[in-house]
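Quick illustration, no need to memorize.
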Amino acid sequence: MNFFLVYTIFGVLIGFALIVVTALQKTVNGSRSLLISSVCVFGTILSFMVGMTCNEPEAVMACKKIGYVFKLFSFTSFVLFLNEYGRLRIRRGIFIFLSAMNIFVLVFVLSYGQNHLFYKSVEVLNNGYFSYTHATRGPIYYVMVFDMTVTFVSMFYFLFRYIPRKTKEEKIRFFLLMSVGTIPMVTLILYLIFGFGGFDPIPSTLVVSDIILLMLILKYNLFDVMSLAQDRIFDSMSEGVIVVNNEYELLYANKTAKKFIPELADRTRYDIEAFKLILKKNEDVYSHEGRHLDIKTSDLVNDGIPMGHIAWIMDMTFIDNYTNQIITLKEEAERANKEKTMFLANMSHEIRTPMNAIVGFSELALDETREKKTAGYLHDIKSASRSLLHIINRVLDISKIEAGKRDIVREPYLTSTLLKDTVTLIKLKAKNKGLEFITEISPDLPSEVVGSKQDIQEVLVNLLTNSVKYTNEGSVTLKVECGKNDGITAELIFTISDTGIGFKDEDKAHLYDKFRRFDTEKNSNVEGTGLGMAISKALVDQMGGSIDVDSTYGKGTTIVLTIPQGIGSDKSTISSDAELIGKTEDEPFGFTSTAKVLVVDDNTINLRLTAVILEKYGITADCAASGPEALTLAESTAYDMIFMDQMMPEMDGIETLHLLKDRNLLSETAKVVLLTANAILGTRETAYSEGFDDYLTKPVDLRDLESTLLLLLPENLIQKTGSKDSLSMSDELYHIQDRMPHFDVRLGVTNYNSSVDDYLEAIGLLYDAVPENIKHLEKAYSAGDLEEYRRYISIVKNTMKSAGAERVARQAEKLEKASIDDDKVYIQSNHEYILAMYHTTAYEAGVASGRLHENTEE
């Protein structure tokens, strides 16, 4: 038998031995890729041997084609092994490229006979001992050479760049690994140069590579994880020790680990996937069968090569008792906080109910009395009531903030409106105390910003009120300027300074403590709850701002308030202080109504108070002291509006409303308004979700009640009685008013500097913008995009309010708030209504401005 054939058979046996040895190794980085490479090498040598023994040319060519399949993928798999073995994290794209090249070449190899791109021609020869082929190479053959060259270059790059060579054993391992790749590469180069008569020597050299790999595995511990683990751990350790390979398969568990986790003793029953997740996440605590196990992991490295992971386990079950105690305390704290919230809600109801009567009747009596002494008494009652209500609101505010019930609502607003409203409140207080109130407004202050006007105003009023209260002579100054402004966000900087009594340095640390006041003996005559600064700090923190306080005892205090706000659509600035502070809003028209109204309240005083207030608007209301009584009255009378108290015995307001609807006792146009003294829980959400059309908080503000009547009652039930506006109604205005019955023309003209021409131009622009606004509103409504809906309903609100269409503006404002609160039920119920109102008023604006002929149908 020919020596070369014997050598090839020997190579087949060596290749098979390498497969068996590699398969028996514990799975670590790269072992599977090396196994695939070994199988491919074995297939290459085996197909080469079979081809040598065949006499038929077709069989020889088939073996040669199969050999190419194994040969190409053996090299790619070996490169993949080097990448995984050294944890190199080479991009997958390289291996995808190599595999794609292999497949590309193999397509032409396997289809030889149909094409001559890989071999131009092939001749099967026999030297008397074995068969072999002599081929003329085609262009694709050199593509294969390029593919193999890239593979070998990658292999050498990985070896030289990443495989460690520090110790003697590492150097030997590096040399042998390099030999595995170098021998086939050198053989390929010689084959390309000398040809060897067409005989392919590469399968023969792969036998040498297999022998070297066997030496690496058996002699130089290429994959021996357990020998390294045994050197590092001892079975007698008090900690549990677990060893896994790079595939997170369990290799070893000491006695302590098996004690902690008995399933480890029987590996076939233990679900290692759970532990695999723990090791990957490196979790600190693992709960297993009532035990809390503290786990620390580290990588297991052999001569710089990652081989697996070790986990140290300590029984920390005693921590469980402490954890349970903490959970119990947390639950108790949450329960106490919930009880506190409920207590405050009940307190709000119980206190506000009589306060409603005190405030309401004192206002009514003050309006009707003409005797000075009595008027003075009534004024003092009203003032004291308002002070008490203010204290209640402060306590509820801080409770809402602590309970997370106080949300920051961001919406566009004019800085001029914010400052005008604030200054108007404080200026009178300062004047009554004989103090000079100074304002300094920077000209570069943005005109429109986006943020929470209500919360900023509350903070400013808190701080300015404190300055006025604690300043006996001198002045209080409010300076407003713009800080950083990048066109998207601007810092509003408010500096409040006074010449008051100040506070001591040691008190600064307690400045934001709740219910704490400084120098109580000296300030005993100054009213206050000690909550103003705490509320201000909490609100400013929620808005992402800051408060800096500097005070000199006996000389005064300076507070710098910085709050970031978004820049609104109007980037212009305020021209002067006079423009900012001087303008005042005109009060709406007075009115009477012929509406049929029912008031439901179990408190007789509040029932009578609401009825008396409604009499001011010409409404003689029916009264019901309970839910059942309201149902009885509704059976005989079709009411236009019902004011329903929330908390009543026997049947509360919500139950009563549901029964009214279930029994069909409400007309299609009837509106039901919730009256509630609960100012801390989700009143708005409750009202709308239960089917109420609106709600009023006790004590009922007369302006809020008036706005509710104007908004909800049908127009045919409202009769205007005149306006407090100073603008006289000329013939021209009467003519415009006739064309615009849904507008308060005098109010609208006043809003436009009392210029009729400016007003007509403004309502013309309003008319032009309506189709686009309606398109966006409909699109946002259909898509459920509340943010976009809020944006355009806000435009409707602002433009209609400026034009004097108060009714539409109020309804748009309700929808705006609903979009902010994610109240989709209210939006769905009122969307078509606002569009109809918008269409009607737009038509009137188009006719009055000349944009539309009066008889034109849209």
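The mean pLDDT is 76.
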